[in-house]
Design brief:
Layout: H1 26-47, H2 51-63, H3 67-74, H4 80-103, H5 109-131, H6 141-162, H7 167-208
Helix pairs in contact: 1-2, 1-3, 1-4, 2-6, 4-6, 5-7, 6-7
Length: 210
């Protein structure tokens, strides 16, 4: 009979700092603020049609992607809650922006489908890991880079629709960032799947022979 591990630790790239149980820390407050920006962006972009204000919210959400993690390491405020909030905020920003941009025809549905397919692949991997007692895999710098590129691309693409004088140049920059982000997003997804496969194989191997 195979024996599943009761718990597995998957720290982020935080040096030698072990995550604590803090809740009210500056990095967590920044992450909470980023989460609140998601419904605000959707309201401004889809309901109020205040594209300039939506662009500002989206730009702030994207530029603060690295801030919370950097502050957490700098101030030694790495926490388990922060390890959950940071990638959650990243994914919600990407998904909300994709759906909103697809609804307004800023990006084609094929691009959205390619990113959603990667998310579905990762969710399947997480479900398998959870079945064997493992938590989410650590956030890899490739995935963070992909997220940064995508969150940088979206405001530029929106700007291209609003700034007709430089629409060609801004669209080229935005799509360059978006396609590189998509490629790295899938590379990171493949890395997570390989990591999940190795963890499951390690968990099943000794017990399977028993």
């Amino acid at each position: 009979m195979s024996r599943r591990p009761a718990r597995a630790e998957h720290p982020r790239d935080t040096g030698d700092q072990a995550p604590g149980d803090q809740v009210l820390t500056l990095p967590n407050l920044i992450s909470f603020g980023r989460l609140l920006g998601v419904p605000l962006f959707l309201y401004l972009f889809l309901v109020a049609r205040a594209d300039v204000a939506a662009l500002v919210v989206l730009a702030i959400g994207g530029t603060t992607d690295w801030v919370d993690g950097w502050i957490a390491r700098r101030l030694r405020q790495v926490s388990r809650l922060g390890e959950l909030l940071d990638p959650l905020a990243d994914r919600l920003y990407i998904l909300a922006t994709l759906l909103a941009f697809t609804a307004r025809e800023v990006v084609p549905w094929q691009f959205t489908a390619a990113l959603l397919a990667r998310e579905a692949l990762l969710l399947g991997s997480l479900a398998v890991l959870r079945r064997y007692g493992y938590g989410p895999p650590p956030v890899h710098y490739v995935g963070k880079t992909a997220t940064f590129l995508l969150l940088a691309a979206f405001p530029v693409l929106l700007l291209a629709t609003e700034w007709s004088a430089a629409a060609t140049a801004t669209a080229a920059i935005g799509w360059g960032l978006a396609w590189w982000g998509l490629v790295l997003y899938w590379v990171a997804g493949a890395m997570y799947v390989v990591q999940a496969f190795r963890l499951v194989r390690a968990a099943r191997g000794p017990g399977a022979a028993a």
